[in-house]
Amino acid sequence: MTICLSRQSFILATFALLLSSAYGIRVLPRTSTDSANLYSEYIEAPTYVNGNQCRNPVKGSSFSMCDPSIVHVAMTLDSKYLRGSIASVHSILKHAACPETIYFHFITSVSASSDLGEVVRSTFPSLSFKIYPFKNEGRVKQLISSSIRPALEEPLNYARIYLADILDSCVSRVVYVDSDTIVVDDIWKLWSTSLTDSRVIGAPEYCHANFTSYFNKEFWADSVLSRVFEGKKPCYFNTGVMVMDLGRWRGGDYTKRMEGWMEIQKQRRIYELGSLPPFMLVFGGEIQGIDHRWNQHGLGGDNVVNSCRSLHPGRVSLLHWSGKGKPWARLDEGRPCPVDHLWAPYDLHRLHRF
């Protein structure tokens, strides 16, 4: 279920979509959880079940994430963006035709893994998921260089580089999404994207963007370094939404390749933006292009404080508040951007729901 929008009607049409149930899903009555812990501010989500057209996976002790019918989704969890992560999971379940066939993989800091896991479990009691403490955190801290925004220097921001090592070996494909995203379409459509010609990653590409601006003059002046793009036509892509073939990633040892560029950055400083440039250096020009409707990014203002963005006209399947501004913060402050009201229906925070 996607949206086709003109500039005049996109908000009205999108609200109609958000208020409707996804096809084939029966929504059971909402109940609240009264667990007396730090995270009791989240209410229990509705229970979403498979429609008649779905293959029902075996639940309970016999359930296996290695079941080939499972759709795998990965994201990071931390206390700062927890509210966004909860809303994102909620949106994925709401619009999935077969929500019980989705398995979530949450990467957390080692110290917070237990508490955050309890939040997810109490908010989504029937959710299939696994918590992975990010054990590469120490190594990543040694490789991280300063960025234009402190949030981009957090070790968890680099966890997507290590998914092939973190997730179980039987997981050969995963959809990675950032915590500041909302999905308004069936995630299976994104998951099933064909990655042709041995492509490792699929993502929307933006070839109108100035690709050279993502690296500094020292990089482009060094013929050895800049040769990495020789014979390619690299385009900018946002790493907040990716389809990843983990089998091919493991076979190509891409984690080591990216760490190699991070080590060069530490020594010579060839870019300014966190974990994005290593992805562009390794995969630029070799991305499987996906329809732009799967990442309407920049809704957070693209690093400009209090700047509101509009959706691009056309179909919308995923909204992404990349940038400084987050919808929950702007709503709480009473200064929301118009697009923030599209995030609000998925908010499960007990005290600040709109």
From TrEMBL:
Topological relation to the membrane, as annotated: Single-pass type II membrane protein
GO MF annotations in UniProt: glycosyltransferase activity
Leader peptide range in chain numbering: 1-24
Compartments (UniProt record): Endomembrane system
EC assignment: 2.4.1.-
Signal in keyword set: yes
Pathway(s) per entry: Glycan metabolism; pectin biosynthesis
Keywords: Glycoprotein, Glycosyltransferase, Membrane, Signal, Signal-anchor, Transferase, Transmembrane, Transmembrane helix
Keyword Transmembrane: yes
InterPro entries, per database record: Glyco_trans_8, Glycosyltrans_8_dom-fam, Nucleotide-diphossugar_trans
Main enzyme class: transferase
Source domain of life: Eukaryota
SUPFAM superfamilies the UniProt entry points to: Nucleotide-diphospho-sugar transferases (SSF53448)
Gene Ontology annotations for the cellular component aspect, listed alphabetically: Golgi apparatus
Family statement: Belongs to the glycosyltransferase 8 family.
Designated name of the protein: Hexosyltransferase
Species of origin: Sesamum alatum
